[in-house]
Design goal:
About 8% of the residues have low confidence. A hairpin with an 8-residue loop joins strand 2 and strand 3. The protein is 41% helix and 16% strand. Helix 3 packs antiparallel against helix 5. The chain contains five helices and four strands. The chain is of the alpha+beta class and 178 residues long. Strands 1, 2, 3 and 4 form a four-stranded antiparallel sheet that branches.
């Protein structure tokens, strides 16, 4: 006759429970490693062409076109000259300023033209806040050009995105202070 199976001692667990715990621990570690690998190798959504669950991109978030050929001639948009009273308190001074916008192409120029009344108003306000001394210095002219450029980009929705904007520069074609 065969002997009856011995029951495990009071403090011992059967081998099958130990094996089950080892397998569960191994599965948890493998799932964790897989998740970590997925997130590390996935990359950032802005680097991908399109992300599945993200809403449609707005015009401002749209992926910009690559820069045009540097050998191609730039497109210039001359604006009407503006005459503005300056912010000098000692005497009445004014400036006549001719501005030209440098844009990527003719399509961009046509888009900017849609906002021209608001752009001219913003330019007048920005120049009228300056003094004659500010406009006569090189730094003052550069600061004014940068302020106008930023304003035009904001107004048209063509702000810098990933180092690129189709509104490229503000150029002074004339600047007379009296």
């Amino acid at each position: 006759m065969s002997k009856p199976a011995e029951a495990p001692a009071a403090g011992e667990k059967p081998k099958s429970k130990k094996l089950l715990l080892i397998i569960i621990a191994l599965v948890v570690v493998l799932i964790g490693a897989g998740a970590a690998g997925f997130f590390l190798l996935k990359g950032h959504p802005e680097d991908e062409e399109e992300v599945g669950d993200t809403p449609a991109k707005t015009a401002k978030e749209a992926k910009p076109k690559p820069k045009k050929n540097p050998a191609a001639a730039p497109t210039f948009m001359p604006l009407d000259a503006v005459v503005v009273n300056l912010a000098d308190t000692s005497s009445a001074r004014y400036a006549q300023v001719g501005i030209t916008l440098q844009v990527e192409d003719e399509a961009t120029a046509n888009e900017v033209k849609k906002y021209m009344p608001a752009i001219r108003n913003g330019i007048l306000l920005r120049i009228s806040q300056r003094t004659a001394d500010q406009l006569l210095s090189a730094e003052g002219k550069e600061q004014l050009a940068n302020d106008i450029l930023e304003f035009v980009r904001e107004t048209t929705g063509m702000e810098v995105y990933r180092g690129y904007s189709p509104v490229e520069a503000v150029l002074f074609s004339s600047l007379i202070v009296q």
